[in-house]
Amino acid sequence: MAMSFFERLEARVKSVDSLLCVGLDPHGAQEATGAAAYEFCKRLIEATAPYAAAYKPNIAFFEALGAEGWQALLEVVQSVPSDIPVILDAKRGDISTTADAYATACFKSVGATGVTLHGYMGMDSVAPFMRDPHAGAFILCKTSNPSSADFQTIPCSLPTIGSGCQSRVLPWLLYEEVARRAGEWGTQYQDRIGLVVGATDPDALKRVRAIVPDMWILAPGIGAQGGDLIGACAAGLSKGASKLLLPISRGISQARDPAEAAEAFRAAINVARKQARSQVDMSNVESLVEAPRGGALKSFQSDFIRFALDSEVLLLGSFTLKSGRVSPYFFNAGKFTSGLALKKLSHFYARTLLESGLVFDVLFGPAYKGITLASAVAIALGELTERDVPFAYDRKEAKDHGEGGRLVGAALSGKRVVIVDDVITAGTAIRESMQLLTSVQAEVVGVALALDRQERGTDSPLSAVQSVEQQYGVQVLSVVGLRELLDFFMEKAENGKAGDGEKEALETIREYRAQYGVVPLQA
Ligand SMILES: O=c1ccn([C@@H]2O[C@H](COP(=O)(O)O)[C@@H](O)[C@H]2O)c(=O)[nH]1
């Protein structure tokens, strides 16, 4: 007997060890023609097939091209290898006779086996999609867009049966009711139903997962929409660290190398799965997904700020900087002085690197602080991904005996290198490292920092980080920036959890940013 949609999905997830669903949205097709859309998707499929658990073409991009777009969609679906499920993102729903025609279009004409639906019209609009026992449907539950709260979080009355929620203090929200109903429909239709819950809302993922522990969830919003990959996985994975499919479209199709980006996303998702399996560090993630996140602050970034405050690495008050500015905060990574603190710190860097999707071969730590940082981050990446990441560092003074020279550690020539340091102040140290690395034909692809102060230079509208980005064309990643610091204190204040010192910090940091903050560079 042929397998059901979710059985096929599970088989594919296992065979490529991946929960990544590659979005086929031909945003970037050279010309707006069916042929260009087809070529775009075909290339993407060829590049990403080894890492894809599923593909998700969004029908909108093909419909926009008229008849040739429809033809392109059919050809795109046909060009997906037969063992990879295709979910047509069509968000259908209508009275049953029309829904019947929609189901025929999705499954028979287009040839997809999965589809996205909205359930607003109720059961009889979903039922026609359940007739084919080999097809599956994901019902919109809590979408990833900023306005999803217009309707989806409207409180409604608690159900009287099931889901064990009678003892809840929290209001029961409309999307939770959708999840509960979908759970009932799923039982009726022998597990042919999944849900769509945006990765931009780990709190919603956590709530939905509690209602439907075994249902597949499609969680869009990673990449271009800024969702928190690790937080979303921690909140949305099922008990067996699975049943969460992460569709990523622009984050892969617009990457310099889509194959590498897909591989990196798969690895980052697998880091979270590994953590979920071994329950390592889940306490942190737990506490973070409990509180609804606002703004762009990711759960691990909150963790990091709390950790830096607790370790007195991040101090609040009044500090005169070298530039003469009086700063309301001061960050001194030199105060991470114990093994456990360094281990924790390195995991924050590792997460930042993994979530960025940056592809690199070697880490480089400029003397002195960078040496411990790069080596600790290499260990952290090894722990999280089982990838054995090489690292290297320099000496302040060249040796003229023994192996000689300034560089120590892994070979750098021809390698893609990420420089790991704590902060960039004037940028002098980074520039020296750039020189040293290019002199041995290494390609510096990125810089990873703990904190980006995001403030203008004294004689330039650009920050030191922006100048480095512009001058060398590299990506500078930081675990947090001034923006996240502000978000952190803002969230605390909004949740009534900020003490007097923190409320004051919020105000003074806001003022400081207004006076000295940078304008973001165009992407
Ligand atoms: O809640 C939802 C439901 C669907 N989508 C769709 O997923 C992709 C996301 O594209 P990215 O480029 O990875 O942001 C796109 O087709 C959306 O229409 C969603 O984003 N959110």
From TrEMBL:
Against InterPro entries, the record matches this protein to: Aldolase_TIM, OMPdecase_type-2, OMPdeCOase_dom, OPRT, Or_phspho_trans_dom, PRTase-like, PRTase_dom, RibuloseP-bd_barrel
Lyase found in the keyword field: yes
- Give the E.C. number(s): 2.4.2.10, 4.1.1.23
Keywords linked to the UniProt accession = Decarboxylase, Glycosyltransferase, Lyase, Pyrimidine biosynthesis, Transferase
Q: Reaction(s) catalyzed by this protein?
A: orotidine 5'-phosphate + H(+) = UMP + CO2
**Occurrences of domain Orotidine 5'-phosphate decarboxylase (ranges):** 19-265
Gene Ontology MF term list:
orotate phosphoribosyltransferase activity; orotidine-5'-phosphate decarboxylase activity
Q: In which pathway does it act?
A: Pyrimidine metabolism; UMP biosynthesis via de novo pathway; UMP from orotate: step 1/2; Pyrimidine metabolism; UMP biosynthesis via de novo pathway; UMP from orotate: step 2/2
What Gene Ontology terms for biological process does this UniProt record contain?
A: 'de novo' pyrimidine nucleobase biosynthetic process; 'de novo' UMP biosynthetic process
Task: Please give the function described in this protein's UniProt entry.
Answer: Catalyzes the transfer of a ribosyl phosphate group from 5-phosphoribose 1-diphosphate to orotate, leading to the formation of orotidine monophosphate (OMP).
Indicate the family of this protein: Belongs to the purine/pyrimidine phosphoribosyltransferase family. PyrE subfamily.
The entry describes its oligomerization and partners as: Homodimer.
- What protein does this entry describe? Orotidine 5'-phosphate decarboxylase
Question: Could you tell me which species this protein originates from?
Answer: Nannochloropsis salina CCMP1776
